[in-house]
Design goal:
Blueprint (H helix, E strand, L loop, with lengths): L8 H8 L3 H8 L12 H11 L8 E4 L7 H7 L4 E5 L2 H10 L4 E4 L11 E5 L12 H11 E12 L7 H19 L13 H10 L2 E7 L13 E8 L1
Parallel strand pairs: 1-2, 1-4, 2-3, 4-5
Antiparallel strand pairs: 5-7, 6-7
Helix pairs in contact: 1-2, 3-4, 6-8
C-alpha cells in the first residue's frame, strides 16, 4: 500500500500518536506516497461530473492537504483557485507543487471567507470531523460561497457486512476510539461517521439544497450500486 518513498512504520506510529495538526505536519513530505492521498481516479471522476455545472470563476479546496484538489479546480475554474488547511507542513508541499494557486492556513471550522468562491470541493476530509463539528464546517463553506455557489465532495456507498473492507474500517475506527480514550492529544480520523443521510441533513441545516449523482467511473458493487457518489450542495 505504501511506495518506497512513503513513511516508515515508525514514522506512521509517531504521527498516529500526535495531534491531527502535528501528525500531518510530520507526514507532509511523504503524504503523496501514501494511500491517504486521494487517488487521481476519484479526482478525475469528480471533475467529469462537475463539468456540466460549470464553468466556474473562483474555486476553493477545503482541507486541501498537499493540493491534490487542484487537479479538479484548475480545469474547471476561470478565475483564482485556492486551498485552505491548518497544517503548515501540508500547505508547504501544496505551495511547492502548485505555485500558481493561493494557499491559506486557517481553521476550517471557522473559514475566513465571505462570498468569495463559486465552487468549493473537499476530498477525504470529513472523517477528521466529529458529527457535532460538521455544522460549523458546512456553515463556513456556505458563507464562503457566492449565491448559487456549489460545494461538492465524493462519498462512498455503505459497505456490505460481507466485505472484508467493512470489517477493516470497523477495526480501524474501533482502534482509533481506544487510542483517543487512552492518549492525548486526540487524533480524529474515522471512516464510519459520515453516513450520507446525516451529511445531507447537516448540509440542509446550513442552508444548502442537496442532491447526489453517481460516479460510475469508480465502479459498481453487486446489484449495480455505485461504489461512490458525488454530493452536490447548492447555496441558494
Amino acid at each position: 500500500m505504501f511506495s518506497p518513498q512513503g513513511p516508515s512504520l515508525r514514522e506512521l506510529a509517531v504521527q498516529a500518536l500526535s495531534s491531527v495538526e502535528r501528525g500531518y505536519d510530520l507526514l507532509a513530505p511523504k503524504f503523496d506516497h501514501t494511500p491517504f492521498r486521494t487517488p487521481d481516479g476519484v479526482l478525475d471522476a469528480t471533475a467529469d461530473a462537475l463539468r456540466g455545472s460549470g464553468p466556474f470563476e473562483d474555486g476553493l479546496d477545503v482541507c486541501c492537504g498537499t493540493g491534490a484538489g487542484m487537479r479538479v479546480l484548475g480545469p474547471l475554474c476561470r478565475g483564482r483557485v485556492a486551498g485552505v488547511d491548518f497544517s503548515a507542513g501540508m500547505l508547504a508541499q501544496a505551495r511547492e507543487a502548485h505555485p500558481g494557486a493561493g494557499w491559506v492556513r486557517a481553521e476550517v471550522r471557522d473559514l475566513p471567507f465571505a462570498e468569495e468562491f463559486d465552487l468549493a470541493v473537499s476530498f477525504g476530509a470529513l472523517g477528521h470531523f466529529l458529527p457535532a463539528e460538521r455544522p460549523a464546517l458546512f456553515a463556513g463553506v456556505h458563507r464562503a460561497l457566492r449565491p448559487g455557489g456549489l460545494f461538492a465532495f465524493p462519498i462512498s456507498a455503505p459497505l456490505p457486512v460481507t466485505s472484508p473492507w467493512y470489517w477493516a474500517l470497523l477495526g480501524f475506527d474501533t482502534a482509533m476510539r481506544v487510542r483517543n480514550a487512552l492518549w492525548r492529544p486526540p487524533f480524529v480520523m474515522y471512516y464510519r461517521t459520515c453516513a450520507l443521510q446525516a451529511v445531507r441533513d447537516d448540509l440542509a441545516a446550513a442552508g444548502f439544497t442537496v442532491t447526489t449523482v453517481p460516479l460510475p467511473a469508480l465502479g459498481v458493487r453487486e446489484g449495480g450500486v455505485p461504489r461512490c457518489g458525488l454530493v452536490l450542495a447548492r447555496k441558494g
